[in-house]
What we know:
By secondary structure, the chain is α/β, with parallel strands linked by helices. 47% of the residues lie in helices and 8% in strands. It folds into two domains: 3-35 and 129-397, TIM Barrel (Alpha-Beta Barrel); 36-113, uronate isomerase, domain 2, chain A (Orthogonal Bundle), CATH 1.10.2020.10. Strands 4-5-6-9-10 form a five-stranded parallel beta sheet. Strands 1-2-3 form a three-stranded parallel beta sheet. A two-stranded antiparallel sheet has the order 7-8. Helix 9 links the parallel strand 4 and strand 5 (206-210). It is globular and about 55 Å long. The structure holds D-arabinaric acid and zinc ion.
Amino acid sequence: xxxxxxxxxxxxxxxPVFDVHTHLYDPSFGLTLWGIDELLxxxxxxxxxxxxxxxxxxxxxxxxxxxxxxxxWDALFVRNTPLSEAANxxxxxxxxxxxxPNARDLAEAxxxxxxxxxxxxxxxxxxxxxxxxxxxxxxxxxxxxxxLWQVRMARDPRVHAALRIDPLLGGISIGAAGxxxxxxxxxxxxxxxxxxxxxxxxxxxxxxxxxxxxxYPDDSRRGQMLSEAxxxxxxxxxxxxxxxxxxxxxxxxxLGDAGDSLGTADLGALERxxxxxxxxxxxxxxxxxxxxxxxxxxxxxxxxxxxxxCWWFMNNPSxxxxxxxxxxxxxxxxxxxxxxDARVLEQVVYKWRHSKRDIARALTTRYEALERAGREVADxxxxxxxxxxxxxxxxxxxGAVR
Length: 402
Ligand code: RAT
Ligand code: ZN
């Protein structure tokens, strides 16, 4: 390994992570999924399982969770080689907890996870992943989550809120379905709704996923909500708007969360939005590989756009390295290379361990280019850059610097 890569990897291990987008919760909410059965029934793995086994999705989802997990394990880990990134992640997690990644069944893993004290386990997982702070995804349309915000809970200072508003912009609730009737109809009601929930949640940002057809200007309901409720609320409260662009929801509804797909968006819409709203700040991630370069270009034109993460179908080692390199080449260190998007607690361990390797390779390539140009790369500079990438860029943009 070249000397510079060793330094980059060391810095990656030392610098604490600010995870800007997850689906985990403050422990006091009691909503965070964890343990081997949740890891195996992650929707990324369900999609892969139902490809290799001829089995109807309806029958799969009708099974109890433990039977689903056994089914996935048998299909992807016993009867097939777990080559995919999501499957590989489960093995990294098992190994991180001293469990056997070659096990034939789940007995050892189940015994381990069920013997853990949830609070201690939460701390252990964050330590193993090198996470200092993370941001939740808080859905006011989720009937399981919304009532929790009516009571004041003792909160973990490492865990921040983000107000997720897909149904306001024509999308679907990312939590449990069924609360659509509480979606405000007009922009005045929507603004009041946002102010109320911002007051309750104290979110670091508002967020929504958007389809590849997202356009701006746009006189549809979505366009009006954006211009007359969402962006004014963000300006008033001084928080960014996170746009996750490119998801085609439920192309295969039978698969539930595993049934979403992607498409390439026209990022001219994003540029026009940023141009018309210089007082708003936008965290932006895109789902299609084809949008990665255009997002860098948009960010070069508009300092109020901060690209973040390698989202979902981009969260593959080959693409993380490729996209991080492209971003370094076009934006220097002024972006957020990754977020975990963890839906299950222990996933942060593999998502960060794997991503750090890929980010380190991309950074090393750029440092080698500097050395070829005659510039010495000091250790302190490497640490400063890694700190910006893994922590400070995100924490500063969302105002979470203490
Ligand atoms: O990555 C995922 O798990 C997706 O299902 C989505 O949750 C996505 O990350 C989102 O936040 O919409
Ligand atoms: Zn997500």
